[in-house]
Input
Amino acid sequence: MSKQLRKAITDELHRRHGYRVMEAKIKPVHIANALMRVEHECVGKMNVLQQLFEATVAKNSLDQKLNAARLMLDAQRDRWGALGQTADLKSSALLNKVLPLLRTLLGADGALFGTSPDLSSFSSPTSLTVTGDPSDDGAGAFVFKLWGGHEEATRLPVLDLLSELTSPRKDPAQIDDLSALLIPLVDSTRAKSAPEFNAEDLISDYSNVEKQLRLAASRLCAYERKLNPNPIASLQRVVLLAALSVFRHGATRAHERAGGPERFLLLDASGDHYSAVAQASTGCVTQLINDACRYMASVVNDLLTSQIANWPVEPIAAINSLLESSGQAPLEPNSPLSRRITDIVKDFDDPEDIRREVAEELIRQVEGNQRRGLDGYLRLLGIRSGFLYPTQKNPNKRLNPTDRTLEVLVASTVDVHGPILEYRDFLEELKTRWAIVVGGRTEDALILSHVGASVPAKALRENSERFLSRLESLGLARRLADSVAVVGLLEATHE
Output
């Protein structure tokens, strides 16, 4: 029954936001694969990659690996040059070194191998290796719509940058080394039309959060154009921004769609996970995750209300109506869930208590032990985007971004074509763009007090100083002689 209920809820989330949050263990590479697929409207023909898979997967026997390698050589022997002329394929460098190395390159930087190439998402700088992997659950199409706008005139330049970086028809003189290795593994491409985006979010106008995310994309694109680093570094930052945009959008659904309070995250630069700042940062993330849980419950409530207006009076009838409306079988009268809901109705007299308890019980049923709701989705995406820490299976996360993620946050906040921001002005922009506070603003203590986090003013000042020092170490900030610090693109060359 949990699968049937999950389908009804995920369909509603997709209808509202354009992405599901309960089906896959999301990674930025999933979003990148889908984003490139929508932008170029193609996928690679994977015959050679399929053979490479079979020739390198650990569980296959030696005979299976040899047979796959022979088929690959027979199909394109001229591409492999001297490597393909070996008389003893079993002990050849091709089978034992080159093909495993190519698989390693495809699997770098968070790639995910599925049961076949077409169900995998590769960390590749060429759309020739784009697959039909649906594991992004709509997140890639959401980002494309967010950046693409409602008409051609509102398409953001970041999509043009993505298109240039990953073009399947790139000039050989401009191909990076990694693409040059991977391109021969794909026979060609085939057309893949992008699905129409019909979600409520983004369909007509932009919310305040969505406007800020579009501005973030424009700022990052300007940063990349001015910096002009190697293409792989640029692509990594664009993909990371896409993942952070999905995280930020998902994290604000409780506020923008359900009327919940606006939340802010405290960036922990203390270096001590027992410090007051670290504890407050953990508290901020915990509130955000709890908001996501409450939003999921509100979605369930809305679904049941659409079936029976006063559904707490007849909760089982409302659930059965919801299941039947989505083509699912109703609850069995003696099923564990039916008995549990009957117990809830007996235990509570207030309809609002029944509303809350039934919604929470249904969420527990569909999420199971894996926390497959919006809360688990945000936690996982935040970790894999280098935004939340620690990465281990510790439920208490705090905001402590990696260097790459921090660069994306800065690059999407500053205007490289405008005057360099003073540090205090940058902190204000960071709060507006990403709802992040550091402790360097006088208002930060008040913001934190609203979430029940009491941090000494001295600790906040020290946290801000450490954050500034970290920006300096990355070449993103500089202290001037008059005790003023500035933030922006200060280094002539870096990746």
Notes: Residues 47-115 form one domain. The beta strands are 42-44, 189-191, 265-266, 388-389, 398-399, 421-422, 436-437, 477-479, 485-487.
